[in-house]
Amino acid sequence: MYSTDFPHHFPKNFLWGGATAANQIEGAWNIDGKKLSDAECIKGAQPGTSHRPTLDDATLSSIEEAVNSDSEKLYPKRHGNDFYHRYPEDIKLLAKMGFKAFRISLAWSRIFPNGDDEQPNEKGLQFYENVFKEMHKYDIEPVVTLSHYDVPVSMTLRYNGWASRKAVTAFTNYTKTVFNRYKGLVRYWMTFNEINTGASGFHATGALEDELTTEDEKLQLRYQALHHQFVASSIATKQLHEIIPEAKMGCMLARSETYPATSDPNDVLAAQRANDLNYFFTDVQVRGEYPEYMNRFFAEHHIKIQMEPDDEALIKRYPVDYLSFSYYCSATVSGSHGLNFTNADQVKVSNPHLSATDWGWEIDPVGLRIALDDMWDRYRVPLFVVENGIGAHDQIASDGKIHDDYRIQYFRSHIQQMKEAVKDGVSLMGYLTWAPIDLVSFSTSEMSKRYGFVYVDLDDNGNGSMDRMPKDSFFWYQKVISSNGEDLG
C-alpha cells in the first residue's frame, strides 16, 4: 500500500539479545547420558603448529581416533565455556543486560545420544527444560536451533550422517519429541544453522568424503544430504504447526553480501551467481521449490538428486514462517577465472573500501542493509538477524577491565544500518549478537577469538578459572536494549 509515512524506530516488541551454539558453550560432553557429536571430534591447534583443524578436515580415521580419546585439551569443544553447569549465572548476566531473547541450540546427542535411539535421554531433556525455565524467570524469550553443526557421531559412523535418508527419520523423531516436551516454553524455532554452508562439506551434514576423488562426486554427496535436510525441515515445520500452533519455524542462512570486483560484466555476473547459490537454500525453504537457475548447475556438475515421490509436494506445502540469518562480513569476487558457480564463490579479492578484523573478515555494515533490503524484496517474510559480531583479541587492561571500543563500534555501525533497513520498509523481528559470552570458536576451536560482552577466563589450551567478567561493551549494549536501539552513544 502506498503511503508517505514510514517507520523511524525499531518495533516495540523487537527481540534484542544474543546467540550461541551447544557445541561451543555447553561442555559436559560425556555426562548425564550424552554422547559425542561430530563437532566434539575436531582437534584444536596442535603443539608446534599454527594449523587449526576444522570440521571439514574430518576423515573416518580422525573421527575414530577422536571417539577413542577422552581428552578435552585436544578437543576444545568438549569443554566449551561450561554453560552446562553455569547457565543460571550466565542467564542472570544476560538479564542484567536486558535481553529480550537468547538463542541456543539443542545438542541432538544430549537428547538422543546415538541420534536414533528408541527412547530419549531424560536427563538431556530436563537440562534444556531447566534452561528455558531459567530464561522465562527473567522474561527472556528462547530462540532454539534444532541442529547447529551438531550431528551425533554415531550417525556418521553408522550411515554417514545426512547422506542417508535414515537421518530424516531420526531427526523428525527428535523434533517431534522436543516440540512435545517444550510446548509452552519455546515459540521461536529454526531448523538447520547456516544450511547453505552444507555445500562446503562435512561440518553441516556429518557425511564423510574419504572415498570420493572428484569435486563433482563431493557435490553430489553434499547436495543429496542437503535435500534430506530440506525434507526434514518441512516435516519439522508441519509437526511444529500441529503440536504448537502459535509457534514459528525459521530457516537460517549464512548471508555474506557478494560484490563484483569491478564493473566488468563478468565480475557482476560472478557476484550474482555467488549470491544466487546462497539464495538457492532460502528459495527452497521459504518459497517451497527448487529454483530453475540451479538446473544448469546440477547438470554441469553431474548432480542427480534422489527424491521420494512426495518430497517436492512436502517442501511446497510446508515452507518456514520467517527467514533468519547470520551476517559478519561481505565478499568481493572476480569472474576472471570463469563463471562456474563454485569458482564464483572461491575467487575472492580484497575490497579496498573496507577494513578487516584480526582474522581477515572485512567489516561492512552497509552490506547488512543491502542484504536486508534484498531479502525482504525477494521473500516478503519476516527477517531475523540471529548472528552478527566481531572476533577480537581482547586484553585485560591495567585497571582490571576490558575496554573493547572496537566491538562497540562494530555493533553500533551495524545497528545503525539495520535501522536504515527498517526505515526502508523491512519487516525485522530482532537482532541477536554473536556471541554474548566468550565461547570456543566454531571455525578455529580457540578461545582467543573472543566475541562476547562477557569475558571468560579460559585460554586456547583449556586453562583458566572460567570466571565471567563484563566488558565495556556489556554496559553499552545494556543502554542500547533499554532504549530500543535509540541510544547508540
From TrEMBL:
Against Pfam families, the record matches this protein to: Glyco_hydro_1
- Gene3D superfamilies reported in the protein's UniProt record: Glycosidases
- The entry's active site is E387 (nucleophile)
Q: Which SUPFAM superfamilies does the protein's record reference?
A: (Trans)glycosidases (SSF51445)
Which key words tag this protein in UniProt?
Glycosidase, Hydrolase
Annotated signal sequence is none
The family annotation for this protein states:
Belongs to the glycosyl hydrolase 1 family.
This chain's protein is named: Family 1 glycosylhydrolase
Which classification does the entry list for the species?
Bacteria, Bacillati, Bacillota, Bacilli, Lactobacillales
